[in-house]
Amino acid sequence: MSFWTAIVAIVAIATIAAVMRERYRAMGRIERGRQQESEDRISAAEKREVEELRERIKVLERIATDNNSLDARQTKQIAAEIEELRDKQSD
């Protein structure tokens, strides 16, 4: 093998190695991009679910506080008195 043939072989090997290395890196970037897209979709779904849960909590808090407020107790008491009066009238 002559000197110039060896130089051409070395350059060819180095070029092929550089192309393969760049291809490998590009595949990694593509895979990371796909992972990021799936994480974004999951993130959007999680955000939607969190908002739904917050709304449910607001409703539950309103139910808990409305039933225990002074007005609610008075309303229940008045309703009970009305029912007692109706019962007395029917007897």
- The helix count comes to 2
List segments where confidence is low: pLDDT < 50 over at least 5 consecutive residues: none
Total beta strands: 0
* Count of structural domains: 1
Percent range of helical residues: over 70%
Biggest sheet statistics: none
Structural class: mainly alpha
Q: What is the terminal separation in angstroms?
A: 123 Å
The arrangement of helices and strands along the chain is HH
Radius of gyration: 38 Å
Beta percentage is under 5%
Mean pLDDT: 84
Shape: rod-shaped
What would your notes on this structure say?
- This protein is an all-alpha fold and 91 residues long.
- It has one domain (3-90).
- It contains 2 helices and no strands.
- The mean pLDDT is 84.
Please outline what is shown here.
This protein is 96% helix and 0% strand. With 91 residues, it is an all-alpha fold. The longest helix has 66 residues, at 3-68.
List keywords for this structure.
96% helix; 91 residues; rod-shaped
Secondary-structure topology with pairs:
Elements: H1 3-68, H2 70-90
